Amino acid sequence: MESKLEPATPHFDSLPGDLPSADAFIAEKRIGERIRRLRLKRSMGLVELGRHAGLSASFLSQLETGRVVPTLRNLARIAMVFGRDLSYFFEPEPHPLFRIHRRTERVRLPQSGVEDPTYYFESLAYMVPDRQLDPYYAEFVPARKLSDIRPHMHPGYEFLYLLQGELEVRHGERVHTMAAGDSAYFDAGTAHAYRCAGNTPAVALIVTMHQMVPHGASMRPAAAIQARAASPGAHTPETEA
Predict the structure, then answer these.
(1) CATH superfamily of the domain spanning 103-229
(2) By the 8 A CB rule, do 132 and 202 touch?
(3) Quick check: 69 and 12 in contact, CB under 8 A?
(4) Domain ranges, ordered by start, for the chain
(5) pTM (2 d.p.)
(6) From 3.30.470.20, 1.10.260.40, 3.40.50.2300, 3.10.180.10, which CATH number describes the 19-89 domain?
(7) What is the pLDDT of residues 92-142, one digit of tens each?
(8) Minimal CA–CA distance to 63: which of 35, 28, 29?
(9) What is d(CA 162, CA 185) in angstroms, rounded to the nearest whole number?
(10) What is the mean pLDDT of the chain?
(11) Is 199 exposed, middle or buried (0-12, 13-18, 19+ CB in 10 A)?
């Protein structure tokens, strides 16, 4: 039976060759950095991780900084803490997400379900998969009829920055008027609606932030559903719920 969790001379069980080869392999896979990223994502300290994995904080610190070579057993213990397979540490690292959407790639869509749209919008990130927020460029035109302003609601939050013009924002029973340069952050679970408050169009940057719900339901506001479904060349966005 082993008397210590960390071997006196760290080794990598499955690697052929000598220790320098193991060191090179560990450095190439950046295993220490991967462990650190997993730990920080959980807001977990070295002591807490060590308690769950049965390893000392000092050993984990050396492991993260590449000063020791782990055994497969120790890596398996760490992987289990984070609900990962051991293979996670050896697979190629995914490239960090970075996507530019050119202005010419965007699609301008009108408010749906009405004959006389009161706003037009363009998704600024429709080609990003599994995104956690949806940014939009929106233009609100003067409404001819107040009945055209339809409130909607959805789980999550919205952020709005008014670039130009005047905009009336109804949130619940309260009505707020915004001028260029103003911003708003609000709970989108309360019924809300927008209306151009001036004689010229109001232009805004709107970001909807998603919120997790039971059963993995996806949450988007009506306009977000349209824009997410839309892609270049699309002509029939989903109907506003």
Answers:
(1) Jelly Rolls (2.60.120.10)
(2) no
(3) yes
(4) 19-89, 103-229
(5) 0.54
(6) 1.10.260.40
(7) 766 677 888 889 888 999 988 778 888 999 999 988 877 888 999 999 998
(8) 35
(9) 12
(10) 78
(11) exposed
